[in-house]
Amino acid sequence: MGPRNPGAVRPAPHRGKAGAGSEKPATIGRAPVGMTRERLFAKRIASLDEVFAFLETFYAVESVDAKTSLTLSLAVEELFTNLVKYNTESHNPVTIRIGRSGTDVNVELIDRDVDRFDPSTLPRPNIEAPMAERNPGGLGLYLVQASVDKVDFQYADRVMRIVVVKSMERGDV
Fold this sequence. Notes:
The protein is an alpha+beta fold. Helix content is 25%, strand content 30%. Strand 5 (150-156) and strand 6 form a beta hairpin.
């Protein structure tokens, strides 16, 4: 066995331990969208370095431009951090799945065995109000939604899925 590369994607069973990864053709509906990479991460803030290494490896392999990769990394950091901070009833690892279909990069965060919560139902922060009059919370999610093309929150059977889509600009592909 060769040297260990923490950002590399390693084949593993779909329900392996935290840190295991897999690579497989993805489908959205019934249409194949190319290869995706998937990995489980321990549900703690300290996992962010591993998350970033995983994302950076994907960006390099898939030739994702700097603007798109930065935007997605910031979105994933905010969403992952929120799962760690607010879905505290479960200590299961968080799955991050990333793939590319044409100019779209799709990221999915999956948190298992959690209570229903739909962040998209929260009121938008009043970004026009002076700082002293603003209520805390919601600004990170607002910035994520404003910077990507799509954020979709799904919940079924105690599983929360957050799907983020960012399209690369034509000149960046």
